Amino acid sequence: MADLNTLLNTQSFIEQNARDRAKSLLDKGSFKELLDPFSRMLSPWLLKQNIVAQADDGVIVMKGFIQQQPAVVISIEGIFQGGSLGEVGGAKIAGALELAIEDNRKGIPTVAVLLLETGGVRLQEANLGLAAIAEIQSAIVELRQYQPVIAVIAGNVGCFGGMSIAAGLCSYLIMTREGRLGLNGPQVIEQEAGIQEYDAKNRPFIWSICGGEQRFASALVDVFVADDRQKIQQCVQQYIAQGIPEVHRSRKADFYLSKLLHVDTTEQITPLAVQTLYQGEQA
């Protein structure tokens, strides 16, 4: 009965749209959306290709407070163009992070939370998207010197491409069972290496390789949490209170490279083998 009551009282984080996810993490009544849909920040490149654009380009930026600490929450809408980033959406994210850096320089301790549901660069805006993601990555590295930058990968769109590198640069990573994290998406790997290498339609296999539970077991993310709005909110608050980590994961490149030297690329690696690979020493 206790388990049933818990289930009934659980509010899904994944089932919310990007705007509501951002609001759910900020103190009630404290938030304001920057460049909201009424600003009409549409991608001019999608319109040129007869693709219906979205007034916020699929990126929501909310400024407010989390437990009375200044915060900016950036949320990507995964159902719009697969959460892909182009010129406008990428500039919104980079600009928001740069404003947080400026706040910190002025003595305002602003933290950043990224809600990542993205396939990476938008193919219709490839070079512009790549440039924007480079600016995002640079801003994360600078901001994390002042305050923690926290990423949440919750929904089944996952986080791939250049934005997976951005996620790896964050101070803390939070994932659910439904989330996925990888440099290349399953369809891309299958297209380039063949279905024998990576069957993109084999969902159990895909999640066993790059799903949230596997990434946590491999020590590649900091916490594995249920799809529960309150629990995700608590994790974000916990890491804000914890502050900047002693060593960021991205500073441990030598550790990860030493592990990759032991991988036999002639055989398909198993989920258990990945976990064993990283469990020999704390990442």
TrEMBL record:
Residue ranges of the TM segments: none
The record's InterPro entries line, in alphabetical order, gives: AcCoA_carboxyl_beta, ClpP/crotonase-like_dom_sf, COA_CT_N, Malonate_beta
Q: Which GO terms describe its biological process?
A: carbohydrate metabolic process; fatty acid biosynthetic process; malonyl-CoA biosynthetic process
Q: Which UniProt keywords apply?
A: Metal-binding, Transferase
GTP-binding as a keyword of this entry, yes or no, is: no
Which protein, by its recorded name, is this?
Biotin-independent malonate decarboxylase subunit beta
Q: Kindly list the GO molecular function terms attached to this UniProt entry.
A: acetyl-CoA carboxylase activity; carboxy-lyase activity; metal ion binding; transferase activity
Lineage of the native species? Bacteria, Pseudomonadati, Pseudomonadota, Gammaproteobacteria, Moraxellales
Highest taxon in the source lineage: Bacteria
Q: Which residues form the CoA carboxyltransferase N-terminal domain?
A: 1-194
**Which Pfam families did the record assign?**
Carboxyl_trans
* PANTHER family for the chain: ACETYL-COENZYME A CARBOXYLASE CARBOXYL TRANSFERASE SUBUNIT BETA, CHLOROPLASTIC, MALONATE DECARBOXYLASE BETA SUBUNIT
Q: What is the native source organism of this protein?
A: Acinetobacter qingfengensis
